[in-house]
Amino acid sequence: MSDTAMEPGQGGAAPLPASYDMSEVGDWIALLKPRVMTLVVFSGLVGMLVAPGALAMHPVLAGTAILCIAVAAGAAGAINMWYDRDIDAVMRRTARRPIPDGRIQPNAALAFGVMLSVASVTLMWLATNLVAAGVLALSIAFYVFVYTMWLKRRTPQNIVIGGAAGAFPPVIGWAAVTGDVTLVPVLLFAIIFAWTPPHFWALSLWAHDDYARAGVPMLPVTDGARRTRRHILAYTVLLAPLGLAPWAVGFASGAYAVVAAALGALFLRHALAVLRDAQDAEGRSLTRDAPAKACFRFSLTYLFVLFAALAADRLVFGP
Amino acid sequence: MTPEERALFEKRRRARNIAILLVLVALSVLFYFIGMARLLRA
């Protein structure tokens, strides 16, 4: 946008009161998907807290690493919104986003996302180490190129493989402290990786009309609700024991194992409720997907409580 | 461009300038503290 085209004095308008309107700044912040950022920041913070030597890390460097994880997630989200602006425009849930609503130009959003990506990776390298910066760059590239551009519109397994992008933050947090990637951060990665499909498929059960309208091949659109319910249960069966893995490898105490087992059992109960929901002949819910909505809400609680329990366990019982 | 549109444009431009200024100041402060932290650690 050229400012020179609107110099004062042109058009004969009188000077107007100088004030400012922050709504545009709010639109730029909305491009960063702040709600998604919350979970990313939290899991990255836990990855840092449980890493050996975390408490000896300088708080400015630790804070910068968290900032970089948050900004990188936002940057990837902005590029995602740039690429997906056509399907966002036809989905009820996303039609009011800044790009489809015309409040931000697509190319400006792309430039914003690329600039923040480069800045976050560079800053991570300056503040911590090359391994953390490398994994951070990998997570952005995975989300943009593998999930957004390659898988999302092509396969119902989009969020299974693409879910890896959201599983990187604890690995990045760990690497920021230690400078390496060992078994424990890989286990945390695996937990989020297995958690992502039941979380998103529960959402897609009641939002599948939106996805169908946009032509996004989510599992309920391509394979139907009944099969999606079975897949949710299958991945929850995989997730429940994975939650216990930090205890199984001797990294967490029995107290964590009790919490993880209870959370896994509750998640399984929700997944079973989704499977047994009253359905029509095509597997569509007759209860307005109440169990799927409860399962989606619980999945968020599950991850927050599980990771908080691990961080608390390490701070209390750790070396 | 009507006076109302121009007023809105100027308000938004001012907000954008303030936001960019704040980000630049915050980054400068952050780089200073990162530099200090790394020097102290070394």
From TrEMBL, chain A:
<keyword id="KW-0350">Heme biosynthesis</keyword>
<comment type="function">
    <text>Converts heme B (protoheme IX) to heme O by substitution of the vinyl group on carbon 2 of heme B porphyrin ring with a hydroxyethyl farnesyl side group.</text>
</comment>
<feature type="transmembrane region" description="Helical">
    <location>
        <begin position="296"/>
        <end position="317"/>
    </location>
</feature>
<keyword id="KW-0808">Transferase</keyword>
<comment type="pathway">
    <text>Porphyrin-containing compound metabolism; heme O biosynthesis; heme O from protoheme: step 1/1.</text>
</comment>
<dbReference type="GO" id="GO:0048034">
    <property type="term" value="P:heme O biosynthetic process"/>
</dbReference>
<protein>
    <recommendedName>
        <fullName>Protoheme IX farnesyltransferase</fullName>
        <ecNumber>2.5.1.141</ecNumber>
    </recommendedName>
</protein>
<keyword id="KW-0472">Membrane</keyword>
<dbReference type="GO" id="GO:0005886">
    <property type="term" value="C:plasma membrane"/>
</dbReference>
<feature type="transmembrane region" description="Helical">
    <location>
        <begin position="158"/>
        <end position="177"/>
    </location>
</feature>
<feature type="transmembrane region" description="Helical">
    <location>
        <begin position="36"/>
        <end position="55"/>
    </location>
</feature>
<dbReference type="InterPro" id="IPR044878">
    <property type="entry name" value="UbiA_sf"/>
</dbReference>
<feature type="transmembrane region" description="Helical">
    <location>
        <begin position="131"/>
        <end position="151"/>
    </location>
</feature>
<dbReference type="InterPro" id="IPR006369">
    <property type="entry name" value="Protohaem_IX_farnesylTrfase"/>
</dbReference>
<feature type="transmembrane region" description="Helical">
    <location>
        <begin position="183"/>
        <end position="203"/>
    </location>
</feature>
<feature type="transmembrane region" description="Helical">
    <location>
        <begin position="255"/>
        <end position="275"/>
    </location>
</feature>
<dbReference type="InterPro" id="IPR030470">
    <property type="entry name" value="UbiA_prenylTrfase_CS"/>
</dbReference>
<comment type="similarity">
    <text>Belongs to the UbiA prenyltransferase family. Protoheme IX farnesyltransferase subfamily.</text>
</comment>
<keyword id="KW-1133">Transmembrane helix</keyword>
<feature type="transmembrane region" description="Helical">
    <location>
        <begin position="232"/>
        <end position="249"/>
    </location>
</feature>
<feature type="transmembrane region" description="Helical">
    <location>
        <begin position="61"/>
        <end position="83"/>
    </location>
</feature>
<dbReference type="InterPro" id="IPR000537">
    <property type="entry name" value="UbiA_prenyltransferase"/>
</dbReference>
From TrEMBL, chain B:
<keyword id="KW-1133">Transmembrane helix</keyword>
<protein>
    <recommendedName>
        <fullName>Protoheme IX farnesyltransferase</fullName>
    </recommendedName>
</protein>
<feature type="transmembrane region" description="Helical">
    <location>
        <begin position="20"/>
        <end position="40"/>
    </location>
</feature>
<keyword id="KW-0472">Membrane</keyword>
<keyword id="KW-0812">Transmembrane</keyword>
